[in-house]
Each structure stands twice: as C-alpha cells, then as structure tokens.
Amino acid sequence: ADFNEHGDLFTVNTVTAHLWHIVPGMICEMRARESVSPYSYASIQSIGDHLHWGGGRWTNSRETTDAHSVAGGGHAHCGAMIYYGDNWPEKYRGTLFTNNLHGNRVNNDIIRPHGSSFVGGHNDDFLFANDAWFRGLSIKYGPDGGVFISDWHDFGECHDSDGSHRTSGRIYKVTYGEIEPFDMDLGNLTDGQLAELHYHKNEWLVRHSRRILHERAVNGEPIAKAVGMLKKQLADESDTVLRLRALWSLYNMDQLAEGHLAELLESSDEHLRRWAVRLIVDQREPSGFVLKKLAVMSVADQSQPVRLQLAIALQKLPVNSRWNIAKGLMGHLEDARDQFLPLMIWYGIEPLVQRNTQRAYELAALSRIPLLRQYIVRRSVDVDAPEMESALGLLNQLESDFEKLDVLTGLADGLNGKQGLSQPANWRKLYTTLSNSPMPEIRSVSVTLATTFGDEEVISSLRATVMDLDAPVEDRDAAFQSLLPIESGLAAEHLHQIVKASPALRSAALKALVFKHTPDTANLLLEVFAELSENEKQEAVAVMATRLDFATSLLDAIDADIVAVADVSAYALQQLRSFTDEELSGRIEGHWSSESAQGKKADEIARYVELMDSDYLATGDAGVGRAVFNRTCAKCHTLFGEGGTIGPDLTGSGRKKADYVITNLVDPTATIDQAYRLTTVITADGRLYTGFVIKQDDAEITLRMPDAEVKLDMQKVDEIVTGNKSLMPEGMLNSFTDEEVRDLLRYLQSDTQVAPAARAD
Fold this sequence. Notes:
Blueprint: E1 2-3, E2 9-12, E3 19-22, H1 66-71, E4 77-82, E5 96-100, E6 105-114, E7 117-122, E8 127-128, E9 136-141, E10 147-151, E11 170-174, H2 191-196, H3 203-218, H4 224-236, H5 240-252, H6 258-264, H7 270-282, H8 288-300, H9 304-314, H10 323-329, H11 341-355, H12 357-366, H13 370-381, H14 389-393, H15 401-415, H16 427-435, H17 440-452, H18 456-467, H19 473-483, H20 492-501, H21 503-513, H22 521-528, H23 534-544, H24 548-559, H25 570-576, H26 582-591, H27 598-611, H28 614-618, H29 622-632, E12 638-639, E13 642-643, H30 658-666, E14 677-683, E15 688-696, E16 700-704, E17 709-713, E18 717-726, H31 738-748
Antiparallel strand pairs: 1-2, 2-3, 4-5, 5-6, 6-7, 6-8, 9-10, 10-11, 12-13, 14-15, 14-18, 15-16, 16-17
C-alpha cells in the first residue's frame, strides 16, 4: 500500500482485481464474495480499468502465455509504491508500481482522478527480471530517490509442492543516472530543520520528518519552532501539496483545534476542505456549529471528492447526527453513477432505517440517487417480521415509474427467502395496477412480490404456464424460477411430470428434486434414466444420494446395469458413504473399494506413478480425458473456467505433475485443507445433505452444495457431522481403466481447453 501526494491510500491485491482506492468505512469486494455485513448489499470494486492478465479466470494467468505477458504477466501482486522520490525521471512521479509474481516483472499503473475517486490505467511494464525465479515482494523508494526491490527468489509462488527456498532471496536497488549517497541522520536534526524538510521534493524525507516530529511531540520535547514554521506554510503557501504536508504534521502534533479546521471548510481548495472534514470527525464528535456547516456543505459543495469525505464522515458521527448531512448528499443526481458515493452514503445511513423507518422513507422519497431509495426500502423489510404497508404506501408519494421500480425492487429483495408472509392490505388492487404497467420491469417484479405474498391466483397462473408444454420455453422457465422458492409453488408431482415430459426444463426439475421429493421419486428417475443426458444422469444420481431408501434403489440399479458406476460423481459417492448403514456401506465398498489400508494405497500410488510415465502419457487422448473429467470431476472442480466451484479450482494447481495428481486421487484425505472438510446434515425426516457450511446460527444452517446453497431450519435438523474426509472420495480410480486414468492425466496437463470426445460406454 502507498499514499499519493494528496493523502489518498491505494493498495494492490491478488486474485481479485489488483488496484484499490481505500477509504475509511468502505466495504470491498472479497474473494469469497461474502460481505462483512448482511446489510451492506453491495461492495465497492477495484478502480483499475484493466487486468494484468489476458482475461478469463484469474487461475489461468499462472500459465505463461503471450496474452498474459502483454497484459502485465499475471493476477498475483506484491508490494506497492507511488513514486515521489527525486531520482527517477519526472514521468514516473505519482504513478504506481507493483511486483507481478507470475510475470517476473514490475508493473506500472497511472492513477487519474475520476468522479469522487480515481481510475487506474495500465502503463508500460517498468522492469523485466528475465529470471523465472524472480518473485518481487516489496518495492519502496528511499532517501536518495533510488528504489529498493526485495526478491524472494524461488521457483514456486504459492502452490508449489517442493518447499520454499530460504537462502536465495536478494535485494535490488534501481537508480537513474548518477546518485549522491545519502548520509544524513534525520534523528539528529532540530525541529526547525525537520520542518524545513517539508519543502523537499522527496516525499520519503517529508514523511520521516513528520514521524520524528510526532514522536517528539508525544515525548514532550521542544517543537515550537517547527509548529510556527508549519503554521506559516499552511497559511501562506499556494501549493496544495505543501499546505497538506503542513496540515498533516500539525495535526499529528495535536496543534490544530476544531476552530482551525472549521476555517478550512471554507477554503477554495477542495483537498483542504475534504481533509478538514476528515480530521474534524477523526477522533472527536463535532460541535453543533460544525455539524451545521457540514450539512450546508452536503448540499452546496460542488466537489465530488469533498462529498465523498462527507459520506465517509457519516459513519464517524453519532447516528442521530447523520440525518441532515445524509439528506443533502442524497440530493445530488450527478452522484448516482459514481463508483463510491452511493455505497458510502448507504453504509452511513443503514443504521438509520431501523432507528426511524418513517423518517428513512422520507429520505427515500426525496433521494435523487435510485440505489439509496431501493436499499432503504430493502432494509426496512429485511427483518424477521416485516411491515409492508408503509413501504407500499411510499409508491403513492412517487410520480416516476422508475422511482416506483426502485421501491418495488427493494421490497422484493428484502423479502426474498421469507416464508409465510400475508398479503398486505389492498394487494390485489395494487397488483392489478402493477401488472398492467407499461414498464416490463415493474410487471416482472410485481409477479415476484405476488409469489412472495402467496397470491394463489398468480401462483396458479404461473404453475399453469410451467406445465403448458406449448408455452414458450423462456416463459415456462421464468415461471418455474418464480415458483421454485415458494413452498406451495411446485409439488414433487409437478417436478416428476416435468422430468418425464419436458426436456427443456428437465435439468432444473432434477435439481429441485434434491430438496422436494416423494417416496416414488427414485423409481421415477430410474424409469427415465436411459433417456437422460450425461449431465442429467449425474443430477438424477444426486437426488438418489439424499435418502437411504433412494440410495438402496440406486445400488440395485447399478447391480442391474441400469445405472453405470461412471454416472456416480465423486460428490455423490462421498454423500452415499455418509449414510451410517452397514449393509449399504458393504455394497458401496463392493463397487468403490476404499483401499483404506495405507500400505495398499502406497502400492497403488507406486503402480500408477511407474505406469504413468511421460512415454505412456504421450499416447493418451486429452479429449477423452476431458470426457472423463466432465462426468467424474467437473461437478465440483473448475478447469479452464468450466465446472463446479465447491472444490478447489484446478487450473493453477499442481495438475501437470502426474505423481502429485495420482497421490491426491488415491489418498485424497492424506493432506486436506480445513476449508474442504465435508459436513453432513441429516434432517428429522431422514434427508441427507453434504457440503460446506457457509453460515450456522441458532435458527438455521446454510450449506454450499455443487448445484445450490441450501438453508435448513435448525429445528428440523437431527444431526450435524463434520468429518475429516476430503470432498473427493477414496476409491474413485477403482472404477477407471488404466487408459482412462492416462487420458485424464493427459487432459489435466493441457495448456488450454480441449473439446471432449464422445463418451464410449
């Protein structure tokens, strides 16, 4: 991380987009796409207008290709520096540098103001190490303006399996032309001399002078001369950067009272105004006088960066002191599409909604930023017992259909997933009006709300559309998705009919049968099994792995050659093994022996490693290997951007090392990341769900499964078991021929995606 000359903080990142402008109180996109607050509703994204790899999933960028090299080398970055030294050419001043791990180089980005924030553009890469072991970690300029780059210097980066080299690191220094050695000890300078350094071109000297003055102030050492010089610099200089340098140092030495900062709120310089706002709320509650000035600024200040600082300040203020500033900020239509302002305002006003819902609705009605109107309504009903009449009443205060859509969308999002809601008063009358709106978006969201409220007329109409084989497929699918979350929307019998007679919706129905089925479901699936596509067969097997009686029927079908062993995915096999039934376990062992003894595993690994040498692998067919991967592994694993996400992404792992892959296939639980230990939940009615726990509290548990996330009421849960088993079951290779193992390894070693060969049964 590093700061620009106006005090804005920037960081670089790995995996998600690389360049970020950091402001206090923001909520950033995270790799797992999980928010730190259930009511933030959205996160602020990277300011970069580019990636440093050639597109596709980030995992692809570990592979060295020209496309990735031209773009910048890869997704992984370490260290950040915005150059403000005094040695390099002027064209680099104020630009950002970061080490690119996979690209073995130093990237250079240009940061330009944009709206309330910035946009980062790609400049030519600055330095190429020409060394495959180069792993730059930190990059910083020093007191003479030269730049230091530390290099871990290792063949791997983070997914190697040969250990880390501890003795090969080195540090480089990059300078331009002749450079004078720096031999000054800043600690020996007087406070006046340290203040004088605030005029130096090299920001390193300025920042360390500020640090030393701060330390002396804390220790009670003399700083009067520095204080006087810096106050004069703040008052008399016309250059923004020089004034900011003095401002920050004076604040660090506790030499600025609220009154001094309040005067800067009137400055013609937007940077001084925004920093005055920042420092006023930084450590203390502002006076009533200053709060009134901030409220006036929220309406009148024409600078988006200043308004951003006011939005940031909301979270620092007592809740009851936020209303007037929020109201002013919400009146700027020009901020509606800004990357930061709508969300930063929202993070500041979210606590207000439950504090005084009616007053929050008044803000929503006045807001010229649509997202805030939508989120206020959403938050107002995002509670255990939502009161909906007032939210719907807000529609009467709005004239624009677009504003009404904001309210309806917020209402639908806030009520999403809630069951047992009663229809609000006058809903049927309102629905008639909404369903005849000229805006298709309003008509669509009105259907969503109708199903949420259990409107039987609408539900019956949607159900009829789903079951009408002559209706357009897109209409049937839309109706299906609308009914899916509703307990009474589609019964298991409806899903059975769809599986039998409607290929267009069959896959969706099979996935729904995992959660909604009857004792006859397994028999029906086996009747139509031969008609199913390869993916549909796996979905059908997934249904039959949810109940003990279904699992018994599945094994009967395997014995009768109705279902092939290869149709059972790794995930489904692991789920079958979760049943604690001795007879079932014995039958499973007969088809997929776990070879649990470590000696047998070692022998099997040795046999495969010896067999799968480079010559034998060269005879393999990657297309056939992909077909094996698709039916066995793709349910859980992604490769080249395709496949499931419940297991690790294989694109950038050690997939090209045959011995590494073989070891993991034969003995998958030997080394297992804690994040990939399976949890099995058994419900009171005997259903079994296996996946990864995303959330658990006293009310419900949420599991991530290959095709969906499932929320289960804890009152209906009989048992929860978190095991020490990997998602990938033992014994998978027992159902493969040696040729299939060879072809699978050949596919895993591919540099790019290949087309699957037709399945040979």
